[in-house]
Specification:
Elements lengths: L1 H10 L1 H4 L5 H12 L9 E5 L5 H8 L3 E6 L2 H13 L5 E5 L15 E7 L8 H11 E12 L29 H11 L2 E8 L2 H13 L4 H8 L5 H13 L5 E7 L5
Length: about 260
């Protein structure tokens, strides 16, 4: 927590992307490519926002953002980060996203819904996607990432067993493009794009960080920090050359303007 505060204090928003594993930055770069700067007061909802990095990033791109998480501590961290990053249009509320449908005031309100690495924690994933779709305006877009079913385990915990209860860990291995399309079809969303992020270099750095962090989390973070500039530069090319499976799959989908 102290490291997180120091990074954000020194670096601003980029500090929110550096405190965790390299997959956080990978997902932000994936999101940013699909999140054009807002010019007309567009609204975004971040479903399962964690400690707020992507909500803050969207706010700094001009969106009026609401970040939702069940964790009060995470929301406290997110609010402090937003203040330090001068992300005035980012707001945060404590809400278990499994109960998103309880908030009628959020229906048909948002131009963009962000849901990154959340759905794999939820048993009733069909309901979650349906509830997110209900929050979108006609024409609104869903930007979602989640583990790809065909990833190679980074460390042993990625290979299961997966949980039959929702205790914060993954309840399933991941998704294919077809399974995500099926969830979107059931929610009335049309998939426009399927893509991937977090290639082999990022995966190896995540594995290194996890392993060394057993000594101390700060040691793990320090061990990979000098190497972190490399994945955004060359990870795609090396991953394609090695035919290595990406760790996360992403979809962009939209809510039709008329039935």
């Amino acid at each position: 927590m102290a490291r997180d505060r120091s990074l954000v204090r020194i670096l601003g928003f980029p500090g929110t992307l550096l405190h965790g594993d390299t997959g956080v930055l990978d997902r932000w770069l994936w999101l940013r490519k699909r999140l054009p700067r807002a010019r007309n007061g567009e609204k975004a909802i971040d479903v399962g926002c964690g400690s707020g990095a992507f909500s803050i990033g969207a706010a700094l791109r001009g969106y009026d953002v609401l970040g939702l998480s069940w964790d009060e501590r995470n929301q406290s961290v997110a609010m402090e980060r937003a203040r330090r990053c001068n992300a005035r249009s980012a707001a945060f509320e404590v809400l278990d996203v499994r109960n998103l449908d309880s908030r009628g005031d959020l229906r048909s309100r948002y131009d963009v819904a962000i849901c990154c690495e959340t759905i794999e924690h939820i048993i009733d994933d069909r309901k979650l996607v349906r509830d997110i779709a209900a929050c979108l305006k006609p024409g609104g877009r869903l930007l979602l990432t989640t583990p790809w079913f065909h990833y190679r385990p980074i460390t042993a915990e990625d290979d299961g067993p997966f949980q039959a209860i929702e205790d914060g860990r993954h309840v399933r291995r991941g998704y294919t493009g077809d399974s995500l399309k099926g969830l979107c079809d059931a929610a009335g969303l049309v998939v426009d794009e399927t893509s991937f992020c977090t290639g082999v270099l990022s995966q190896k750095l995540i594995g290194l960080q996890r392993t060394v962090s057993r000594l101390h989390p700060l040691v793990g973070w320090a061990a990979v920090l000098p190497l972190r500039p490399f994945p955004p530069l060359v990870d795609g090319a090396i991953t394609r050359m090695l035919r290595w499976p990406y760790y996360s799959i992403g979809i962009q989908a939209h809510k039709p303007r008329s039935a």
